[in-house]
Amino acid sequence: MPVNPELVGRDFPPTPPYLVGREKVREFSRAVFAADPQHIDPAAAQALGYADVVAPPTFAIVVTDATLQQLLSQPDSGIVLQNVLHAEQKFRYSRPIVAGDELTAKLSVTGIRAMGAAAMVTSESEITDAAGAHVVTTTSVLLVGEGDA
Amino acid sequence: MSDASTGAATAGLTVGDVVAERTVHLTRESLVRYAGASGDFNPIHYRDDVAAAVGLPGVLAHGMLTMGLAVGTIEPWLGDSGRILDYGVRFTKPVVVDPDTGADVTVVAKVGAVDEESARIDLTVSHDGTTVLVKAQVRVRTV
User: Which CATH class is domain A5-21+57-144?
Assistant: First the structure.
């Protein structure tokens, strides 16, 4: 199996705070064809009760990029980016991400199992806001193949 | 967060109802735009030579781009995206984006299940007649 099973249960530090910017939300919204006014127009977002523009649901993946980098940078992980395929993705929300949020992600590797010569790696990132309240949990399943960088 | 008016669309749903659908045309520019917006600069999403070298049939759309545009299909119907409780997909088939003709991704959103407080919306996401996301399900709050 190409991935070190001891990654399960390893303690990863919370990522540095990610400050969600209004223009970043607009840029991401345009990129995923999310044209709804709540993502673009602060007044439309405020009419729904939010302080500023609302990020599209999959924006949480941008905040978890730092946790993927943590995983890849473990010297003993065995994971090489070019061998990684994204197999599954899930988000569980307490609330949407809104411009102005300062978010931190905490990674945990919850499962690794062999699949032929490859490994299925399941990880979770719990994203919390500046007050420590839960915003969204992202669960990723990566199929990691063999091979050197 | 929501008020009573945004709940209107999600009231009285019946399993099998189509609540939204659209086709999004992707080009290579779309992939570069998503790479920049998301920070995912894996070259298989914009370089033909790299895609070929790793054995892919061509430059592929980011799975997370397909996942993102799929859920965006239901937002005008849903109103407040804060109604989304969870959203998950399995990536099963790649979307190859031709440098000249691009690629069309079609999304059909149907009610898959309803309970007292929420509904499961099943997204059928296809490209070139093939389903590219499996178990693409959005659970939304209906009260």
Answer: alpha beta
